[in-house]
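Re: weekly structure request thread

Next one in the queue (479 aa):
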Amino acid sequence: MASSVETVIRSVVTKGIMAVSEFNRTRQDKAREHPFLTGIHAPMTEERTLHDLNVTGTIPPELSGRYVRIGPNPFKPDPRGHHWFIGDGMVHGVRIEGGKALWYRNRYIRSQELAGKGGPAAAPGPRRGRRDLINTNVIQHNGKTLAIVEAGSFPAELSDELETVAYTDLGGTLHMPFSAHPHEDPLTGELHAITYDGTVQDTVWHIVVSPEGRVVREEPIPVTHGPSIHECSLTQKYVLVFDLPVTFSMKALIGGERFPYRWNPEHRARVGLLPRRGSAAEIVWCDVDPCYVFHVANSYDAPDGTVVCDMSVYETMFAGGPGGPNGRSLGMERWIIDPAAGKVTRRTLDTAPQEFHRPDERFFGQPYRYAWSLGLPDAEQEGMLGEAPIYRYDLETGERQAHDFGPGRVAGEFVFVPRSAAAAEGDGWVMGYVIDTASDTTDLVILDASDMAAPPVAAIHIPHRIPPGFHGNWLPDPA
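Done, posted below.
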């Protein structure tokens, strides 16, 4: 443990570095047209509430709940040092019940950081120092709606109408940062996450939240260089730790970048198999060729003792300078992680560029058959997203289906919603927001999950553009 003198020294050094960073940021071009602040990414300027939305098609009567997605929406946009990942958080939600779209709402996450810029007053609740920006995912756990982010803030609890109720440390049980990508084990109700702290370069943590919403495990895992670990995955035996070559960059921080992570070819690329109740000393580290992963589809234990994991993969990430995600997509891969050999074998399932894989979550951590993902433009472009289809993969037959939304229409992440709790895997719908660039409007589109080529089952019309965001979920009403 650091002495009080060491703590003071580190505090002074940190303040000095941040002062240099802020100075260098002021020297950047304030008039620059930043690709994640303009075009379809231009932020909304107000919070809105709309009732009785127009619908084309028929909303399935089985759907009763809210589709909610979150993303960055900078309150006072400034291109200097900006990165897509650090904009003020805003949630967008549609309430569906009885075959109708009852309302749309968008609300800022009431952070102290936002209030300090002149935005809405901050919500109450505990903070981890000054870092309380939340903009990456919205989940439902223990009957509560939680907005979450990685590497800094505690979660924020939201009301049914998407107002920020309070920040929460889960009843005083959460002491570390949380994650943007926890995964719930559908067999136990536990929530698992690999978390990291942007100010700590030598440790990440495995955190487990019980079905009752309390942290029951915070296992430290030694690392080097401060890796950015956006995602983890589960099997019935293991938690997967993706320690890949995107790491903290002091050069980027001093240069004025607000998201100081870069591709680091000196960092060993590896995947850790952590026994779900084991210590960090029991992790089996398996080497993998350098690459980067934001999102997995699913993973499971194979009968031969290996672990199978399917995911979207990039050749590199953040190697092309500041501003946002940049790196060539390698499509969808299957990794066979062999703890006996200590290595990973990579197999390409589809070379089509893609992101935001989602499975039928009722089968997470288990052998599964279906996955859906968002296509990316064939050529890497500023702003990342563009005209591209939604894919559905049958991993037993190898069949790929696609739904093309047509020219000028840009989709985001689509999530799977089962027809009922007892429905067969893949029986249900996928839904997500689609921007119409010609009219500058948005539809919440509902597709038949088993027939992607068919016309939409329903399209709920929202008369303005919802900027592209990150993650969301269908949050069903209690049974």
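Confidence is low (pLDDT under 50) at residues 4-10. The two ends are 48 Å apart (CA to CA).
Next request, please.
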